[in-house]
Write a structure and sequence with these properties.
The protein has one domain. By secondary structure, it is of the alpha+beta class. The protein contains four helices and two strands.
Length: 97
């Protein structure tokens, strides 16, 4: 009985979540520069998943961190900091020219 109720609540939550986004434009591309630091050992950031976001985020730059799971900033703090710092510096340099 508990599993059935749990399944129902998950289904209801998904339906409500979908309804809450009906007013949103499904294609609203972001134009700001975006850096996505993606781990390579995490299913939610698989290349096909990231590729599916390209129409909505055409300006994103994806940099993958090898041998890393979901929490890149905890698992590889030095590499994550270097990647973000280099990316920000590159953006600042391109704006000043």
């Amino acid at each position: 009985m508990h599993v059935i109720l749990l399944g129902r609540s998950v289904t209801q939550w998904n339906q409500l979540y979908h309804l809450s986004e009906l007013h949103l434009n499904p294609v609203l591309p972001a134009s700001l520069p975006i850096l996505f630091v993606a781990p390579n050992n995490e299913p939610f950031t698989a290349p096909k998943v990231i590729a599916a976001t390209e129409p909505l985020v055409p300006s994103q730059e994806v940099i993958r961190i090898e041998n890393c799971g979901h929490f890149v900033m905890l698992e590889k703090p030095d590499e994550t900091t270097r990647i973000i710092g280099d990316w920000v510096q590159k953006k600042l340099d391109s704006e000043s020219t």
